[in-house]
Amino acid sequence: MSAPAAARPSAARVVARGRRRSATRRRVIIATLAVLVVAGFAVTLMFGQTFYPPDDVVRVILGEQVPGASFTVGRLRLPRAVLAVVAGFSFGMAGVTFQTMLRNPLASPDIIGISWGASAAAAIAIVSLSLDRTQVSALAIVSALAVALLIYVLAFRDGVVGTRLILIGIGISAILESVTSYVLSRAAEWDLQEATRWLTGSLNGVTWDQTLPALAALVVLTPVLLHQARDLSAMQLGDDTASALGVRVERTRVTVIVAAVGLIAFATAAAGPIAFVAFLSGPIAARLVGVGGSLLVPAGLVGALLVLVADFAGQFAFDTRYPVGVVTGVLGAPYLVYLIVRTHRAGGSP
Amino acid sequence: MTTSHSLTAERLTLGYGDRVVVESLDLTVPPGRVTVIVGANACGKSTLLRSLSRLLAPREGRVVLDGRQVHRMPAKELARTLGLLPQSPVAPEGITVLDLVCRGRHPHQGLFSRWNGRDDAAVAAALEATQTTDLADRAVDELSGGQRQRVWIAMALAQETDLLLLDEPTTFLDASHQIEVLDLLTDLNRTRGTTIVMVLHDLNLAARYADHLIALADGRLHACGTPAEVLTEDNVRTVFGLDSRIIEDPVSGRPLMLPIGRHHVRPQ
């Protein structure tokens, strides 16, 4: 752009240079995010009411008995930190999947009611039906899938238009949110901590029983989504263009919806609908790595980092302990307002 | 890339919901030529183009490419032979020109095949042909309409297909950009031998740039042949319900249609 004296670079050089530059940027940012997630994870394990040095933490993870640390780190902090990473990664990937597929940042599963489907089912299962953990997870995933299907069917008219689906989703989201509130208000003996889990998301008192199903879902569903990553990126160009590029649009859409809803459902069944993580991670990741390649992994890492940091801040940054969802909610709400204002100004989809 | 492909439609019936848009249409696309489809609004032009490129499954009949049914071919294999630029493609917010053009390589990439020198070369050639090399680092949403259309064509070129279908590639462009795009497609046809099929609104541009002109009326093939055979006063009246005079275009020697409305007509 500068150096007007230089001959214009050939197209081949421009392509090679441009691709190299974006690949480097992508690699550097993904590596940085991964390092930050690992660092956040380590800090969460070491710090708290009591400090445990890194070698104590490592020994606990390796299965040794360390007085004090075995209980605090092994039983309390480790499942909580693992769930923070797992839930954050799940929300981030599922969120960006929906946003990419529907080409709209408002189309995140926590905005269009899919998270609330899982949340409402989990609340009913625990409060009214007194089911155990596995049954709660199962009911949450079935309910999230059912809500996704319901929204899809209601929005379907000669294909699915993003905006209509989002508006219907927001409506369903409101209904399910009030169902959740109602169920929780009927559970008189239920403590506030458990209630907030299903309303805003919380990692308080998390045990391995909650963490492991969500981890298993992440391990199984991540490869499914990554396998579709390139087709998903092509679908950003519109269904017709994607088809013309050789994408089986309907098949890809169904596969990624099922995988993303699965991630949301399992993570929500464990940690509640941690507010706005699914919604925020994709746009943040896009800002960081650019929109050229797939955003699945960067968004997952951003999500994990958001939950780790927000949970740590919620526990220790204020006089009162706030559940993680309250902290992410405070971060996410202004962005939602900003997007809606911008949508209105543009008079169309943002 | 001079292998010629045969693309034909046989007794093709197309529709959405209960509505039949194209009925029992037979059509042959001449290989290595520029074919332009014209017709009144809502006569089924875009629908036909979408079906030729597998986007819309036929109610009846079939689309055949080199002896094989398009709707039964593996999606990626078809996408390496036949490309389509839809009427209003969507660019993701903030995507750069280079990244968008690279998306055109999608059908050439498998699960395990990594991006390689051939992909680089195809993208570079596409940028060069469309004169968008200088725009490579710019965001697509910042570009003017004419530049953006060239970038989309570059993406379709990077796909390296022997057949390229375009749905109204000149809409929303001013006169000079329309000519620029049509010249570019003609270059492509002449230098690479790419078979072009496009829908155009402007009859005179269609007559000028088409080797083969197809006129649709109410979902049926009304006339096809050279522009001189198809663009006649009778056909304009039947297809568009418009009186006109056809003269020889002094620039190209092709037919030129002059519409006759209710006003501004010199008394004979």
Automatic annotation (TrEMBL), chain A:
InterPro entries: ABC_BtuC-like (IPR037294), ABC_transptr_permease_BtuC (IPR000522)
Organism, scientific name: Thermomonospora echinospora
Family, per entry: Belongs to the binding-protein-dependent transport system permease family. FecCD subfamily.
GO biological process: siderophore-iron import into cell
Protein name per its UniProtKB record: Iron complex transport system permease protein
Membrane topology label: Multi-pass membrane protein
Primary location: membrane
Pfam families: FecCD (PF01032)
UniProtKB/TrEMBL annotation, chain B:
One Gene Ontology cellular component: plasma membrane
Keyword Ion transport: yes
GO terms of molecular function: ATP binding; ATP hydrolysis activity
Domain of life: Bacteria
Domain ABC transporter: 7-243
Topology within the bilayer: Peripheral membrane protein
PROSITE patterns for this protein: ABC_TRANSPORTER_1, ABC_TRANSPORTER_2
Chief location of this protein within or outside the cell: membrane
UniProt keyword Ion transport present: yes
TM region(s), chain numbering: none
Compartment(s) of residence: Cell membrane
GO biological process, alphabetically ordered: iron ion transport
Alphabetical keyword list: ATP-binding, Cell membrane, Ion transport, Iron, Iron transport, Membrane, Nucleotide-binding, Transport
Protein name: Iron complex transport system ATP-binding protein
Gene source species: Thermomonospora echinospora
